[in-house]
Amino acid sequence: MRIGHGYDVHKLVPGRRLILGGEEVPYEKGLLGHSDADVLAHAVSDALLGAAALGDIGCLFPDTDPAYSGANSLQLLQEVCRHVRANRYEIENIDATILCQRPKLRPYITAMRQNLAQACSVPVEQVSVKATTEEGLGFTGAGEGIAAHAVCLLR
Prior knowledge:
This protein has 155 residues and is an alpha+beta fold. The protein is 30% helix and 29% strand.
């Protein structure tokens, strides 16, 4: 068994779509990044790569490569899972937490779980997604950005 942890953060800015776990969440701001800036998919990707000791998503999909400009992070996650499986690991479970003051994410959690499970080719019961505020503290609490943590277990 191998355990991995992933973390990602992106700044909230006007003029971008807010994509979390492959789900578009209506909001006046979106996350700034080279790809679609899906912090949840990025944190899950890094957890999986970390557990398999395969680096991080920046190694596989560098932000200096124009091929990944505006990339769909769920497609990148699918590629991460191919790398993990090519190294003879199977995903046992994924548990992720989004740190976000606004917007409220509860209505989108089920879809996020389904999107991540599909991208990873695992049953949705093996994927947990939670969201929490930071009670107005720090950059996430001030609404300046959104962060996500993820852990996974590989067999």
